Structure prediction request, 659 residues.
Amino acid sequence: MPTSPLDRAAALLASDPARAEREARALAAAAPRDPRPALILASALRRQGDAAGALAILRPLARAFPNAAMTQYELGAALAAADDASGAEAALGRATALNRDNAEAWRALGQVRFAAGDARGAEAAFAQHRRAVVRDPRLKPVAEAICAGRLAEAEAMLRRLLAARPNDAAALQMLGEALIAQGVYEDAATLLTRALELSPANDGARFSLATALFQQQKAPEALPHLERLLAADPADAAYRNLMAATLAQVGEFDRALGLYEGLLGTLDRQPSLWLNYGHTLRTVGRADEAVAAFRRCIALDPALGEAYLGLANLKVAVFTGAEVAAMRQVAARPDLRGDDRAALGFALGKALEDAGEYEASFGCYAAGAAARRAQTPYDADAFTAQTRRAEALFTAEFFAARDGFGADAPDPIFIVGLPRSGSTLIEQILASHSAVEGTMELSDIGFLAKAFGWSDPRPPGYPTALADLGREGAAEFGQRYLAATRIHRKLGRPLFIDKMPNNFQHLGLIQLILPRAKIIDARRHPLGACFSGFKQHFAQGQAFSYDLADLGRYYRDYAELMAHFDAVLPGRVHRVIYEDVVEDTEGEVRRLLDYCGLDFEPACLRFYENDRAVRTVSSEQVRRPIFRDGLDQWRRFEPWLGPLKDALGPALEGWRDDP
Prediction:
């Protein structure tokens, strides 16, 4: 408890700044030469919104005591409140230099830098804040290691500490956050969930948990945590930014746009906000505004490769000559980050392709793919082995013995295949039917597959463990899928689309848990599909696409697995050939609707009039009528596709075969 009058006045600042002001004035009147009451008074005025009054006290105080860390902090905070960003940064920089353990000064410095558009400088300050806020002497060395980027060292220290004290909430939180920094989101979420069980009022752990869940595309689980955080602090920019991104994951695009627009009202120099705003605008079909947002982002940070990639992903020729020159200049920088180098490679490849410079374009695509491959390693042998296990397990006899397994609902329509094979077009056609709702690429089947060892290299390996799934378990997993995807169904239609191309890997699981679901295989010429994937920068999940030989081998495994299911479950999968849709749209649409048990509706032929949100990079393409331009684009690059052709081998023959 505070004992002196000064201590009591200072303690009131956070809870009752008006009373703190009254007590500080009385103390200052009694001791006019003591700077401490003046500092408390200035802080009280600032907290009540009187930045000018605070500065009138703090400026002469800072001149008189230039090495007083708290005075410099208060000066910086008051200057920030008065919108003097440069002055605030200078004062807060002095405050942190004088006392590197002043956590609030680091936090304020991060906020000033973020508002000024210096995202990297802001993150450096926030990292120092996370270090300085740790007071426990056992955890201080860990905090220092994390701040310095020595994550493996910090993780080892934390695991030793938790082995002795498994219920240490602070250590659990720090380990979770260290794992987030390393991209290990699932384990991070487990640790942070436990930390919150032990310390439910810990908003920092709650925000970190929401971040880990968002990174796993588990937006429905992240939302309640963010709602609680925003209820306590509705103005917090970090909470609002993550909430906007999370809402976009569940299709709440209007709410997401509202949050971004509110943030940009006060943080209009922050490139990452303009970038996220641009992506969301593209998704809802506001292409011109998306272009403007991406260009605003580039103006603020010319080295941010993802902003150029945002323009490229509109799939229309939008780059100016000046932008192409700027991309070349940025790409030549030796200090460019890996993320920006990869994104710029793909963006510059698109710009040069639009200009007809195909050899140079391919070189840029290849450079972008190489940079991306370095970030996302891929094990082709492991995927081939998984494919062979699926073929060995899923026989006609296997499914016959499990007749009647799974949830009985017919609701889902799965669209599978390779990315960039026409799946978004099929989705848009079906979503234009009155009985079908389009959603997005849902990760829920993949989440369920993890329960059976998917992504686990240890024996027996996925999908072998599915042999042990019984009747009740299959029904339970089917219901879990239906419950988890319900948040994406906004229109109350009886059927909905799950357009995750990679789900072809999980057809056996889908058959076991959702036997009445429809499955559509979106297929395209192997060279067209593979090269279109090679020149695309995917956010996640397509690590095979950054090497031509891996792409060809992946396509072969995919085609072989689909042929296997055609043999053991004849007619179960409906194949749609992209080239056939282009040549005979109405005929293919009627076949598609017949397979889905739906009556023909003319709106399905006018799919381009559907104003639904589309999250994939094909969003602008499916808002136009069918066009032939993209059919043979790969032929312009054929001289450089030798490794792809060699890897495809026999998959180039008979790729259109439909049983």
Observations:
- The chain has a mean pLDDT of 93.
- The chain has 33 helices and five strands.
- The radius of gyration is 28 Å.
- The first strand starts at residue 412 and ends at 417.
